[in-house]
Amino acid sequence: MHIRKYDVDYGRRALLQKAALGAGAGVLAPLWPLIASGADTSKAYPDENMSVEMYTKGKVKTGDYVTAANVDAVKNLLDPITYKQVKEMGRKIKIVPTVTDASLLYPMGFLEASLKNKGKAKFDATGNIVEAASGKPWIGGLPFADAKDANEAIANLTLSWGRHDYCQYAIRQWDIAPDGNQAYQYDFVWAELQAQARVDGTVFQGKDDLLRLQSVWFTAPQDTAGSSFLSTWYYDQRKFPDLYGYLPAFRRVRQFPTNQRFEPLLPGITWFLSDAWAAGDPMLTWGNYKIVGRQPMLGAVSQNWHGSSKNWELPVHGGPKGQTFFDTNFSMCPECIVLEAEPTGYPRAPVGKKRVWIDVRNQQFVAYITFDRRGEMWKSFEPGWSRYQDGSAIVKDAKGNSDWSWTYVLSHDIQANRMSRIMHTESTSGGYKSQLSTNGVDVYNKYLTNQAIQRLGTA
């Protein structure tokens, strides 16, 4: 008789125990030594954490689609809004192999900086993240690669959103009404420039009081083209960002109040600036951070870039008119931190709390839900991630590696049943292209000042 050392529920029980103890990642072995050595990360987990087939006892396998007929077998591996989408709205999700090489879950430069600087971060007396030896701002990569508490986990999300020193995303968005018809369609560009916590270890132009500059400008349709916004983040996470916007109707740049972070930038959009990267506000303007669990999850962490498709766009399906969801690929994430927090610095915020599921292999979120002030589920903000390689199509970094970034977002307001489908595209109207470095361009003066957003608005 064969006696199993670990029964099928061992991994789940072990993760629950780890959440209570504040332990690091890994069940059978610590995860991060395996990542540092380039080893197979499956050595850190029992089979049911690595294999959806093992977890479901054969009810769902790699290559299968999760549909309304079998979604109950993986209900505990999905956030509740994704489960509802599959169970009630006709969504289907393809299962692809579990990633066992953690380097595929990062831009290589960011992973190298995280390994180089691992163990060098600490919180100072104000709650900000500094390099332990010097007391100066963080020097690049994940500050807490093996996050053990909620403050460390949120710091990993907040300090470098796109995990490159500069990111410029050409984006196309479709806003789908409850009846399944397209209500709005927008083209825009989102740009992020890290002033500190940079992969290259420098401080951008000596701006040592800033963390990042982030701008967004809309290029279509004609009646909204020219609307542009600039958010300037201070390194001190107790400070609110400065938010300025240029609206063509007013023909001037004006400053927006802090609580504008919880309002859509334009009609029909379901997401707020606060939702970006599941960490759209400075971490110390939220509070009551806590880890409420650790668990395996299904997440869109690989094989979600369609570089061989026109403009990198994903096919769509589901909903009343067949256009509510992207076709997406999910795989097992063997261990995710489940984090909750409340907007303590925003007394008039419509959000009561947020819940974030974070893949411990790269400390990036795979699911995010907000709740309203009554405690009812309100919105989900689901990201897709991928290395940018699809057959012969590839986007390379400066060292020739296939690069990594987000590929799509599904922002679903389930109370109004409105969906924003957000696609990271190769290019968008106005001639703008996606890029994951500055390519030698003075992006600061071109896109990231008040003068720049006014110029973009009147161009």
Q: Topology of this structure?
A:
Layout: H1 10-21, H2 31-37, H3 47-50, H4 52-55, E1 65-66, H5 80-89, E2 93-95, H6 108-116, E3 121-123, E4 129-131, H7 150-159, E5 166-176, E6 182-194, E7 210-220, E8 228-234, E9 242-247, E10 252-255, E11 287-299, E12 316-317, E13 325-326, E14 328-342, E15 351-359, E16 364-372, E17 377-387, E18 389-390, E19 393-394, E20 404-413, E21 418-425, E22 427-428, E23 432-433, H8 443-447, H9 450-458
Question: Can you walk through the features of this model?
Answer:
The mean pLDDT is 94. This protein starts with 9 loop residues before the first helix and ends with a helix. By secondary structure, it is α+β, with helices and mostly antiparallel strands. The chain is built from nine helices and 23 strands. 15% of the residues lie in helices and 33% in strands. The strands form five sheets. It has a 15-stranded mixed sheet that branches. The chain has a two-stranded antiparallel sheet with strand order 3-4. A two-stranded antiparallel sheet has the order 12-13. It has one domain: Lipoprotein localisation LolA/LolB/LppX (outer membrane lipoprotein receptor (LolB), chain A, Clam). The radius of gyration is 21 Å and the shape is globular. Pfam families: DUF1329. This is DUF1329 domain-containing protein. InterPro entries: DUF1329 (IPR010752), TAT_signal (IPR006311).
